[in-house]
Design a protein that fits this description.
6 helices, 139 residues, Arc Repressor Mutant, subunit A, mainly alpha, 9% strand
Length: 139
């Protein structure tokens, strides 16, 4: 069965390409700075992102390995290995879910919380070029 509902893709014009180029450039600059901030603290950017996603998960202070895999856009087994590395560094701890023993919750330790807040403050200072992140503020 063929689908007539497929979207037709229009070719980008010069303004579209310029906008995409600026976005990718700003994104790459931010990612480079993020790497520098994380590495200076002795962790990888993926470890920082994991801490951020654990603490920033909507509605609670923890996340499951599956939820973290989705947030990181990574395979669950790779995410589990990342959690293990963070756990070995004392940044997170695993807890078995009391209602569903198949689920494993990932929680920040006090050390992980301190590390996250320090790095998040440094990252937040660099979000300025992305006014949409925290909402553009009028002077």
């Amino acid at each position: 069965m063929s689908s007539n509902s497929e979207k037709k893709v229009s070719l980008p014009d010069k303004q579209d390409l310029k906008t995409m180029s600026v976005f990718r450039y700003e994104l790459r600059k931010f990612l480079r700075v993020s790497e520098e901030i994380s590495n200076a603290a002795g962790i990888t950017t993926l470890q920082y992102q994991l801490l951020l996603h654990v603490r920033g998960f909507p509605g609670r202070e923890w996340a499951t390995v599956g939820e973290l895999a989705e947030r990181l856009q990574a395979a669950p087994n790779g995410t589990a290995a990342l959690v293990s590395r963070c756990e070995a560094s004392g940044l997170v701890r695993r807890k078995t879910d009391k209602t569903d023993r198949r689920q494993v919750q990932v929680h920040l330790t006090a050390k992980g919380e301190r590390c996250l807040l320090k790095l998040a403050a440094e990252h937040k200072a660099h979000y300025g070029s992305f006014g949409w992140v925290f909402g553009a503020k009028e002077d």
